[in-house]
């Protein structure tokens, strides 16, 4: 009886040892994946910052260009219609600034 208990205990230890090794390998793999994700995130943030500065300069140029343009329908329609148009008009880029 003692012999069979020893064999069982030994088998349990081997099994738990294999499970532990498997879990450790999985943990190591996940840690490596986490590091790769963090590196990719940093690269993405750097690209966003670079694009953000480029976009801001381009948007400013567009604003200046549109502000200088004369509206085609400015002198068309009745006075009342012109007043309403002026009240309701918004420059397209102002939608994003509000």
Q: Tally the helices.
A: 3
Shape field: rod-shaped
Q: State the secondary-structure class.
A: mainly alpha
State the end-to-end distance. Answer: 82 Å
What percentage of residues falls in helices of 4 or more residues? over 70%
Unreliable stretches (pLDDT < 50, length at least 5) are none
**Oligomeric status:** single chain
Percentage of residues in strands: under 5%
* Number of DSSP E strands: 0
Mean pLDDT comes to 79
Rg value? 34 Å
What does the secondary structure layout of this molecule look like, with pairings?
Blueprint lengths: L1 H67 L10 H10 L5 H4 L1
Descriptive notes:
The protein has 98 residues and is an all-alpha fold. The protein is 83% helix and 0% strand. It is built from 3 helices and no strands. The protein has helices at 2-68, 79-88, 94-97. The longest helix has 67 residues, at 2-68. The N and C termini lie far apart (82 Å). The model has no long low-confidence stretch (mean pLDDT 79).
Compact summary:
By secondary structure, the protein is an all-alpha fold. 83% of the residues lie in helices and 0% in strands.
Features:
0% strand, 98 residues
């Amino acid at each position: 009886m003692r012999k069979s208990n020893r064999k069982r205990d030994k088998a349990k230890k081997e099994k738990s040892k294999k499970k532990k090794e498997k879990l450790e390998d999985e943990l190591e793999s996940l840690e490596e994946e986490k590091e790769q994700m963090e590196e990719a995130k940093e690269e993405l943030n750097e690209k966003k910052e670079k694009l953000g500065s480029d976009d801001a300069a381009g948007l400013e140029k567009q604003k200046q260009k549109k502000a200088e343009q004369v509206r085609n329908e400015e002198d068309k329609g009745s006075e009342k219609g012109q007043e309403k148009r002026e009240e309701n008009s918004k420059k397209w880029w102002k939608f994003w600034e509000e």
